[in-house]
Write a structure and sequence with these properties.
The protein has helices spanning 30-41, 59-73, 90-101, 120-126, 145-161, 199-212, 246-252, 287-294, 297-302, 308-318, 321-348, 379-390, 428-444, and strands spanning 16-17, 84-87, 109-114, 133-137, 181-185, 214-219, 226-228, 264-269, 281-284, 363-365, 368-372, 392-393, 395-396, 415-419. By secondary structure, the protein is of the alpha/beta class. One of its GO terms (molecular function) is transaminase activity.
Length: 448
């Protein structure tokens, strides 16, 4: 059958964007931020918020974050403010971790659970890890531990052959150590797959990291955006974590960390739960780890990168406003969006042969839904057709591959990611229907 070109076909309807992974503007809290800023700036005792920040960040916010995380995660070992430093958000903090705790020669590889948050690849490359980023496939429990262990062992054997036994560029300092490996993951409501790494795999990952001197960096930015998987259940306030964080497991497992720095650091951000424009986040690890991150040169020079906005967020937390915003507004709103899109997917896409990762039977969360196409289809071509023919913006799975990794098992030419957070809630089902039309057209070999 001869295909017709689709280039001359006009777009259908208004544009729909199921790519952008940002919070919808209607879910941002400008009124609450305005009230918090007035509370801070109208108090004459708060002159410090207009000055340079301490290296570790605004102390009242560090204390409130510690209280809040203790309430949400309920770790066996209580979290202290000394385990926390304030950052300019998760991406900036990842760069600071690499600057302080890795050496571009001695640190053998960066191991990234794939599909991965693709924009992290640029951050790793900026720290000298071009051609040394390695993909680790997901399994149903969130990470293929056997694959990772084989890769770590082979990497160590190469390092011994090359006599790469000591840091080459960055020497250890009192506030840092140089790790042999970095492991990067989004273990809860992963971007893009939405998977939740199992408790067993989290524990086994810590033990592997200790054995091979690896630092596990986890983006824990979606943990609080959770709701019941079953849409028939009444929405409820979900103010307890579905799973312990890897950093909490490192603090407790087998007697705790092997040294002062530990093998895990949690990357937190207020971008998804307050607003991206706040450019404020936090890192949590051992006390030595948190202090070491705060001693990155750029922070040591100018202090923590968020001081004024950090004081506003402190006020939101101290008053309980942020907690209520998350549990009473964001969770129900995102849960509604998720279930609307899932209903449309089950009606319009699954009958066409698309599949989903195995979902947690009790809880869903995050921003994204990951779909696998039938074998005959290609996600890149579908993405292009969707934009031209249906005015629908989506993102194909190949974008979530680890840069430079050649393992066919971690190439995603049959996958798509849909985001339900950014677009207006009223067009989410329409976006799925448009995608279904493109897929049907592709399967029948016609552009009509």
């Amino acid at each position: 059958m001869t295909r017709k070109t689709s280039q001359s076909r006009p777009p259908i309807g208004r544009s729909i964007d199921l790519l952008t992974g940002w919070p919808n503007p209607t879910l941002l809290p400008p009124r609450q931020l305005d009230e918090a800023s007035n509370q801070i700036l109208c108090n004459p005792d708060n002159t410090d918020v207009l000055g340079y920040a301490p290296d570790e960040g605004y102390q009242p916010l560090r204390e409130e974050i510690a209280k809040w995380l203790n309430e949400f995660y309920r770790p066996k070992n209580p979290i202290s403010s000394a385990r926390i430093c304030i950052s300019g958000g998760a991406s900036q903090n990842l760069a600071c971790i690499l600057q302080t705790f890795t050496d571009p020669i001695y640190t053998r590889n960066v191991w990234m659970v794939a599909p991965t948050y693709y924009l992290a690849c640029r951050i790793f490359a900026d720290s000298g890890f071009d051609a040394r980023m390695k993909a680790v496939p997901e399994d149903e429990d969130g990470i293929d531990l056997g694959y990772l262990e084989r890769g770590l062992q082979e990497s160590e054997e190469r390092a011994q052959t090359e006599e790469n036994n000591h840091p080459k560029i960055k020497t250890p300092k009192p506030w840092r150590k140089i790790y042999k490996h970095v492991i990067y993951a989004v273990p809860t409501f992963s971007n893009p797959s939405g998977r939740i790494m199992s408790l067993h795999h989290r524990q086994a990952l810590i033990r592997l990291a200790r054995r091979y001197d690896a630092l596990i960096v986890t983006d824990d930015v979606y943990d609080m955006l959770q709701w019941p998987s079953n849409p028939s259940l009444s929405p409820r306030r979900m103010d307890r974590a579905v799973m312990p964080r890897i950093v909490d497991i490192d603090a407790e497992l087998d007697g705790g960390p092997l040294d002062a720095f530990g093998n895990a650091v949690s990357n937190g951000s207020f971008s998804k739960i307050v607003a991206p424009g706040c450019r404020t986040g936090w890192a949590e690890g051992t006390e030595a780890m948190a202090y070491g991150i705060s001693q990155t040169g750029s922070s040591r020079s100018g202090g923590a990168p968020s001081q004024l906005v950090a004081s506003f967020i402190y006020q939101l937390l101290a008053s309980g406003t942020l907690q209520n915003h998350i549990y009473e507004e964001l969770q129900p709103a995102y849960g509604k969006r998720y279930h609307l899109m899932m209903t449309a997917i089950e009606k319009h896409l699954l009958p066409l042969g698309l599949t989903l990762p195995q979902a947690n039977k009790d809880v869903a969360g995050g921003y994204f839904i990951w779909l696998t196409l039938p074998e005959t289809l290609d996600s890149t071509r579908l993405t292009e057709r969707a934009l031209v023919e249906e005015n629908l913006t989506i993102i194909d799975g190949s974008r979530f591959e680890v840069d430079g990794d050649e393992n066919e098992a971690t190439h995603f030419t049959k996958e798509l990611r849909l985001c339900f957070a950014w677009e207006d809630v009223g067009v989410l089902q329409e976006g799925v229907m448009r995608l279904a039309r493109v897929i049907q057209s592709e399967m029948t070999g016609s552009d009509e």
